[in-house]
Amino acid sequence: MKTKLILTVAALLLIAMLLVNMVLLMFWKRDALQREAERDQAVLLHIAYQLTAEKAYLKQAFSFTEFYPGEESGQIMMLPRDDIHTELPPLIAETATEAVQTGRLTMRASASLADLLRGQQPFLASARPVLRQGQIIGVVAVTRSLLPLFTTLWQAEKIVFIYIVVNLLVLGVISFFRMTKLIVRPVERLMQLADRHTEQEAVWFAADHSGSEFNQLASSLNSMLAKIEQDRTILRTTVAELEVANRQLQERQQEMIRAEKLASVGKMAAGLAHEIGNPLAVIQGYLDLLARSGQSEENQDFLCRADQELQRVSGLIRQLLNCARVSKGRPEIFFVHALLDSVVEMVQVQSAFKQIKLTVQAEAAQDRINIDPDQLRQVLLNCLLNSADAISSGIERNNGQIVLSTDQSEPHFLRIRIEDNGIGITEEQLAAVFDPFYTTKEIGKGTGLGLSVSRSMVENAGGFMKMESKAGEGSTISICLPLADEGGNND
């Protein structure tokens, strides 16, 4: 940009100076020719006065150097009126003829730039009619070279060219630095500030408060950038809100799917309770009658086993009903850590936990919650039994570990974590682990209702439950419950 600018400025200055010089040269040439014409007029007037005498000889000779000392290229001619059309140079003949026809002084010059470029010598021809008794009897003419005049003008023109070059350099440098200050530097500053305007940092264009166009441009750019920054902030806020809304929509969609599944299970459970409950009650009555009818010891054993299986079927129906409609139970305020200790004592005596190291890490500073303790005990038992089954399904069963811990990962919430080093589950299985009747255990070893019922109990208490797992790396179940305040309510 600087190079183009200096070339443009130099070209404009050069053209302007050449045009001024051409105009001045034309004026100089006109003034010089005017002075030479006045000189010729004086000489011709003097000669014509001498020729007006009656005895004056019209063809007498006059010395050119007498009237034009120092000049050699020229001559003075006295021509009778009838001899004008003799063989004369065209310039003299035309000038003399015009003087006779007009009756006054006539001047012609051959001094164009085209003649000079062709190498022709410039001449000036002047003619004046000679009068005698009021009649034109002839003409006196003078022709002389203008080369000395143009030589003088050319010498002066050389000085002018030097002056033009000096002025071009001086004015070019001054114009360059001035235009650099007024145009180039503000543009470069605007470009640099524009390059620095990133999403992380808002850079405003500095105005020079001079009222110039660049100041107006900087103000306009600042207004534009302020609007862009405002729109960007609004866009970010809108995107964040859309992300939250999309996430909530997905969560609501999953909840609707799960609710639909639970509704289906509820309908099925109600139907099963109606269709199976009554026959089971009848069978239970007959079993009671048979037990009181004095049966043998072997028959009593059969009746006891039948009653156990009947109770097992009734328990499955109750689990199905609990999955469809979980009651709120009887909430009460208690300390979770004490409940954890009792649950650990309960499971450690079972054979499934003989080869498992069960560790309790009660790290939560506050552990008062408001929930039905029996429901929370059932939830913990379901989770611990699932962890034990996952460990027993692994290859290294003797190194099983379960860590039962508490902390406060979120404000006003108590989190219970059950972490094991069992076989874990895949991502596809993890997405459906809380669905009713879904189980990763072998057929006959699980109903798939434990985690579904547990999650319903936790959500009814105002908490939430989630599971993290990777195949071959174990699983972690998190149970988050709201803490109870001093007044006995959940925070």
From TrEMBL:
Membrane-spanning residues: 6-28, 160-179
EC identifiers of the protein: 2.7.13.3
Q: Which keywords has UniProt assigned to this entry?
A: Coiled coil, Membrane, Phosphoprotein, Transmembrane, Transmembrane helix
Which Pfam families would you find in this protein's record? HATPase_c, HisKA
| Stretch forming the signal peptide | none
- MF terms in GO: phosphorelay sensor kinase activity
Kindly state which reaction or reactions the protein catalyses: ATP + protein L-histidine = ADP + protein N-phospho-L-histidine
Domain Histidine kinase, residue spans: 271-485
Q: In this entry, which stretches build a coiled coil? A: 232-262
Q: Which domain of life is it from?
A: Bacteria
**Name recorded for this polypeptide:** histidine kinase
To which species is this protein native? Candidatus Electronema aureum
